[in-house]
Amino acid sequence: MNTPRPAFITPLGMVPGPYPPPAAAPRLYAAESPARLWRTALTLVERHLSFTRRSLHAGDTVQTAGEAFKSLHLIHFGAIKTVVVAANGCQQVAGLHIKGDWVGFDGIAGDVCACDAVAMDTSEVWTLRYSVLLKTAERIPELCHALHTAMSGQLARDREWRFALATLPADARLADFLRSWAQALALRELRTDHITLRLTRAEIGNYLGMTLETVSRSFSRLVALGLISFDDKGRRHFAIPDVQALLGFVESKAHPCATAALAHP
Predict the structure, then answer these.
(1) Which of 8, 46, 114, 129 allows an S-S link to 19, with CB 3.0 to 4.6 Å?
(2) Are residues 136 and 185 in the same domain?
(3) Greatest CA separation found in the chain?
(4) CB 215 within 8 Å of CB 199
(5) In a domain, 201, yes or no
(6) Other C-beta atoms within 10 Å of 15: how many?
(7) Percentage of residues of the chain with pLDDT beyond 70
(8) Contacts of 106 (CB under 8 A, 6+ apart)
(9) What is the pLDDT of residues 202-255, one digit of tens each?
(10) 204 shares a domain with 106
């Protein structure tokens, strides 16, 4: 004698029983466009928190590796690079941060600042005590959400950077770096028709895993292809005539498995 199946068990190919699948959990917050995320963080911090406003010149230090972690830093304007110094004294550029970005997340886990953070240009950062930020975020859910979103965004950028290092040849790696930098400026409503490089060729090579000579040759090839142009003899100010053309070049050089990821940063 066959025992009838309960109506809520649905074998493959059969009509579902009377119990519908659970509805997807609603989002607690509507997804914000990338163009608004940086503005949201600055607005919430200015509205709800006390902070120290620090004016910096190129070369000034925001934090030093090894010092006790107590604060996070939100960039109001300017640009900050993070640098890891190995035991043998070798330096590695680990991250580049501009308006609306946070600096210092990597010190949370060990209660120690994990890297040096140095101003690349005239900048202003808002320094907030982390303990105060956490207590305030408990009362202001939007602030907690903005903080988590910023952390997630930095993890995603780190993943994309490592992906580029592993899958792109030198010329495409440099092109993708310039494209992503221009895109970050555009999202923050900053000028993109004439972009100023705040890194030396050696620092760009350090960040991208390329030698100084390779960086110089790659720049020359991108210029020859009409994908970028320089506005001065020092080659610190450049323009991207067509960002889509630059992206197309990157995709054409990428490993086939990498193309889809590069098309959707």
Answers:
(1) 8
(2) no
(3) 90
(4) no
(5) yes
(6) 6
(7) 82
(8) 113, 114, 115
(9) 999 999 999 999 999 999 999 999 999 988 666 778 899 998 999 999 999 886
(10) no
* Integer CA distances (angstroms), 176 to 172, 194, 198, 216, 232, in order: 6, 17, 17, 15, 22
Contacts of 249 (CB under 8 A, 6+ apart): 171, 172, 175, 222, 225, 227
Q: What domain range includes position 151?
A: 32-157
- How many degrees, rounded to 5, is the angle at CA 209 between CA 206 and CA 215? 75
CA 239 to each of CA 44, 93, 122, 140, 256: distance values in angstroms, whole numbers, following the listed order: 34, 24, 21, 41, 28
Kindly state whether residues 174 and 153 are assigned to the same domain: no
Q: What is the pTM of this model?
A: 0.81
Q: Are 182 and 243 in contact (CB under 8 A)?
A: yes
The identity of residue 99, as a single letter, is K
For residue range 71-82, what is the model confidence (pLDDT) as tens digits?
999 999 999 999
Same domain, 187 and 143: no
Distance CA 12, CA 10 (A): 6
Structural domain contains residue 246:
yes
**Per the structure, how many domains does the chain have?**
2
> Residue 190 CB: number of other CB atoms within 10 A?
13
Amino acid letter for position 79: A
* C-alpha count within 13 angstroms, C-beta hemisphere, residue 176: 29
User: Could you tell me the two tokens for 262?
Assistant: 């590069």
Residues 61 and 153 in one domain: yes
Residue 189: other Cβ atoms inside 10 A: 11
- Where residue 257 sits, what CATH number does that domain have? 1.10.10.10
Whose CA is closest to 130, among 96, 152, 104?
104
Rounded Cα distance, 169 and 174, in Å: 9
Q: Are 162 and 116 in contact (CB under 8 A)?
A: no
